[in-house]
Write a structure and sequence with these properties.
The complex is a heterodimer of chains A (604) and B (168). With 604 residues, chain A is α/β, with parallel strands linked by helices. Chain A has 22 helices and 20 strands. In chain A, the strands form four sheets. A six-stranded parallel sheet of chain A has the order 3-2-4-5-7-6, sandwiched between helices. In chain A, strands 11-10-9-12-13-14 form a six-stranded parallel sheet, with helices on both faces. A six-stranded parallel sheet of chain A has the order 16-15-17-18-20-19, sandwiched between helices. In chain A, helix 22 links the parallel strand 19 and strand 20. With 168 residues, chain B is α+β, with helices and mostly antiparallel strands. The mean pLDDT of chain B is 95. The chains are: A alpha/beta (604), B alpha+beta (168). Bound molecules: flavin-adenine dinucleotide, thiamine diphosphate and magnesium ion. The site of thiamine diphosphate (TPP) has 19 residues of chain A, from helix 17 and helix 20.
Chain lengths: 604, 168
């Protein structure tokens, strides 16, 4: 082994914070395009050619040749997780936080099955990742070989596309296609399954600069006639509403969306996935809508007469009851890159298929040319109504409580981080409080699992985000139940010195489940309590991190300030906040109920 | 939303890759769409597969089906044949008992339906029929069910009339 490799490898492994590894492959003997390479080299070189910074992975027999090539190179870093699920979550979070494709590498069989939860999570939220999976050698496929699973079959329903590479000659083009498919159109995960014999077969390697696929050409530009109709409709609106979703974040169109909203003076609401697509602290922003949306957002959504939906898919957590929603007359414009998102649950009047940034840019130009302006008197009256709804102050909670209120912790986190942190969350009540009380002003700051609702994502998500943005403040808001689903990653954080701050809102319950049981099952709390919890302080310490337990409201802010202080900038801090066990998330629209049929907090 | 269910024949062209069929079949089962029949074979261009899917659903469901099929990365073109003038054909092989007086009767019925007897024994006929699904159904209704030993049908293949065509 050439010494240089080991030195550069170790420098990263021991986490000295050095990034100054030399560029280029240490085994690159021949320069120029055409050279013989093994399949394993090809996989590694393709990843490098894509400009990938991190590969999150876990080795095993089927991928050992690929790992051997990773060992010999230093164009990207490999991050060794402690469970394949976390590798995919971390790659997914890297993609959410940067907009670039995240990459994970796992072995065949159990490596793949462990990765499936991560892949399905990325699929439901349309996140661009490429997952390279090892497979048994081609002659062994179908022989019930050791660690064989039908990876293409198992992952097919939860990927944008997948490939089984059967000939090393196809490998480079397949890798190129994988990155292309993952990142264009409606983004999503792509799996490339590479049998072990392919990794030692040799062929001439050339990484294609671009790829043409006759069967895959996503639409970018919107239909000009439809966009004109849409603009006309917006100008005629008397009670307009802009409803934005994850597509605005994924399509990097927050600036265009905000410009459009400002130009028109219309109210804006975001889905859980659209937070940050329009600044939460802007007066025009009514907050999140849906099951746990604000009173003003849900009422305005229900009662608007023209709705502009942008990169949002009328999910059942948003429109629980399409028939109830349809009772009010309104015209709907829907911008989405995926035709199948349009008129799926809610019929729309003006469908616009295209990339949100391109469509909004064109619509802005049309609006600027238009001679008409929205009816100012009507818009004023509409805003007066909205302000009345807003005055209900639906997110009010008891600030005098002697027990820590979870909402208070999130508000203080916002203060302490000046609203500028990257926040990941797990799934449950804490996720909803994070969404409601941390006011996201920028896109890609809020990283959570919306579509699949996967408990356990919070910690690996924070790892992916922190590696992508080493200087940023990264907070993981979690629950004592969710955090235990990927707790092993505290070890990964130690190895790579990932200084995230974990904020556990510890209510000793699967709070979200308990809340449903309280409301809909006569308070029979079947298996939703969390007994025998570990001492999280000691647990964090045993992994080499800092632990804190916070029991009183008056200690919340000081603890957060300490955790985010320069003194602890390099350290992972695990904060165990003992919060009110009885707190519920409000407002709430019961499943199947109409948007305006909200249950509000008792205090109201 | 429109809830009247109708029979649709959807034609699609896709890359002739391993697993192409399972992507389509998987989509139908995962999204709980009906599938009455599905036929698939390579075309004159060996890199392409042509499929004909017969399904039943409301306008909204059919719209989702075509959108979801189009979304499959390997799918090149999708056409709902039932939206325009088209021709539909299905092949059926029926093995029937053919004894005594019934033997002559069976031959006559096959003739009426333009069926051909393609295999004969002392006691059986094997009849080949092509036509629309409903014509084949009609034949089966026209003969005494007690005489049917075995039927096998290909499922419909369809093509647009006139200039209407599905090309890569
Ligand atoms: C416990 C729990 C509670 C929840 N409660 C709520 C709630 O109260 N409110 C809520 O809103 N959600 C809630 N969710 C989340 C919910 O399940 C959905 O994930 C979410 O509503 C979907 O958001 P979205 O409509 O923005 O779509 P996304 O899943 O973000 O989809 C993005 C859409 O944009 C399109 N798109 C992507 N890229 C582009 C582009 N470049 N140009 C144009 N279009 C593009 C896609 O095709 C897709 O249609 C909850 C989840 C959990 C786990
Ligand atoms: C993997 C997985 N299993 C089960 C669920 C169902 N579920 C949703 S929220 C929740 C409880 C979460 O508890 P906790 O992490 O303590 O958060 P809290 O609601 O108490 O804030 C459960 C079990 C899920 N979303 N994901
Ligand atoms: Mg809890």
């Amino acid at each position: 082994m050439p010494a240089v490799q080991r030195v550069s490898g170790r420098a990263f492994l021991t986490g000295t914070g050095q990034n100054d590894y030399p560029l280029g492959f240490t085994n690159e003997l021949i320069s120029g395009h055409f050279m013989e390479a093994t399949g394993a080299e090809i996989v590694v070189r393709c990843i490098a050619e894509e400009g990938v910074e991190f590969v999150f992975g876990y080795p095993g027999g089927a991928v050992l040749n690929i790992y051997d090539e990773i060992f010999k190179q230093n164009r990207f870093k490999h991050v060794l997780v402690r469970h394949e699920q976390a590798a995919v979550h971390a790659a997914d979070a890297y993609a959410r936080a940067t907009g670039r494709v995240g990459v994970a590498l796992v072995t065949s069989g159990p490596g793949v099955t462990n990765a499936v939860t991560g892949i399905a999570t990325a699929y439901m939220d349309s996140i661009p990742i490429v997952v390279v999976t090892g497979q048994v050698p081609t002659p062994a496929i179908g022989m019930d070989a050791f660690q064989e699973v039908d990876t293409v079959g198992i992952t097919r329903p939860c990927v944008k596309h997948n490939f089984l590479v059967k000939d090393v000659k196809d490998l480079a083009a397949t890798m190129k296609k994988a990155f292309h498919i993952a990142s264009t159109g409606r983004p999503g995960p792509v799996v490339v399954d590479v049998p072990k014999d392919i990794t030692y077969h040799k062929t001439e390697f050339e990484y294609p600069a671009s790829i043409e696929m006759r069967s895959y050409n996503p639409v970018v530009k919107g239909h000009s006639g439809q966009m004109k109709r849409a603009v006309q409709m917006l100008l005629e609106a008397r009670r307009p509403m802009i409803y934005i979703g994850g597509g605005v974040v994924l399509g990097n169109a927050a600036a265009q969306l905000t410009e459009l909203a400002t130009l028109l003076g219309f109210p804006v609401t975001n889905t859980l996935m659209g937070l940050g697509g329009h600044p939460a602290t802007d007066r025009q922003n009514l907050g999140m809508l849906g099951m746990h949306g604000t009173y003003e957002a849900n009422m305005a959504m229900q009662h608007c007469d023209v709705l502009l939906a942008v990169g949002a898919r009328f999910d059942d957590r948003v429109i629980g009851n399409p028939a109830h929603f349809a009772r009010e007359q309104r015209r709907i414009i829907h911008v989405d890159i995926d035709p199948s998102s349009i008129s799926k649950r809610v019929k729309v009047d003006v469908p616009i298929v295209g990339d949100v940034k391109s469509v909004l840019t064109d619509m802005l130009a049309l609006l600027r040319q238009a001679k008409e302006k929205p009816d100012a008197a009507a818009l004023n009256a509409w805003w007066t109504q909205i302000e009345l709804w807003r005055a209900k102050n639906c997110l009010k909670y008891n600030r005098q409580s002697p027990i820590i209120k979870p909402q208070y912790v999130v508000e203080k986190l916002w203060d302490v981080t000046k609203g500028d942190a990257f926040v990941t969350s797990d799934v449950g009540q804490h996720q909803m409080w994070a969404a409601q009380y941390y006011k996201f002003d920028k896109p890609r700051r809020w990283i959570n699992s919306g579509g699949l609702g996967t408990m356990g994502v919070g910690l690996p998500y924070a790892m992916g985000v922190q590696l992508a943005h080493p200087e940023a403040q990264v907070a993981c808001i979690t629950g004592e139940s969710s955090i235990q689903m990927c707790i092993q990653e505290l070890s990964t954080c130690k190895q790579y010195r990932i200084p995230i701050k974990i904020i556990t809102l510890n209510n000793r319950y699967m709070g979200m489940v308990r809340q449903w049981q309280e409301f809909f099952y006569g308070s029979r709390y079947a298996e939703s309590y969390m007994e025998s919890l570990p001492d999280f302080v000691k647990l964090a310490e045993s992994y080499g991190h800092i632990g804190m337990r916070i029991e009183k409201p008056e200690d919340v802010e000081a603890a957060l300030r300490e955790a985010f202080s320069p003194a602890l900038k390099e350290r992972l801090v695990f904060m165990d906040f003992q919060t009110d066990q009885t707190e519920n998330v409000f407002p709430m629209v019961e499943g199947g109920k109409g948007l305006s049929e909200m249950i509000l907090a008792e205090e109201l | 939303m429109n809830n009247n269910h109708h029979r649709h024949i959807i034609s699609l062209l896709m890359e002739n890759e391993a697993g192409a069929l399972s992507r389509v079949a998987g989509l139908f089962s995962a999204r709980a769409y009906n599938i009455e029949s599905l036929t698939v074979a390579p075309t004159e261009d060996a890199t392409l597969s042509r499929m004909t899917i017969v399904t039943v659903g409301s306008e909204d469901i059919i719209e989702q089906i075509t959108k979801q099929l189009n979304k499959l990365i390997d799918v090149i073109k999708v056409m709902d044949l039932t939206e325009g003038r088209h021709i539909e054909r299905e092949l059926m092989l029926v093995k029937v008992k053919a004894v005594g007086a019934g033997r002559e009767e069976m031959k006559r019925t096959a003739d009426i339906f333009r069926g051909r007897i393609i295999d004969v024994t002392d006691s059986t006929y094997t009849i080949e029929l092509t036509g629309t699904g409903s014509k084949l159904d009609a034949f089966l209704e026209a003969i005494d069910p007690a005489f049917i030993i075995e039927t096998v049908r290909t499922g419909a293949s369809g093509i647009g009339r006139g200039e209407r065509s599905l090309k890569a």
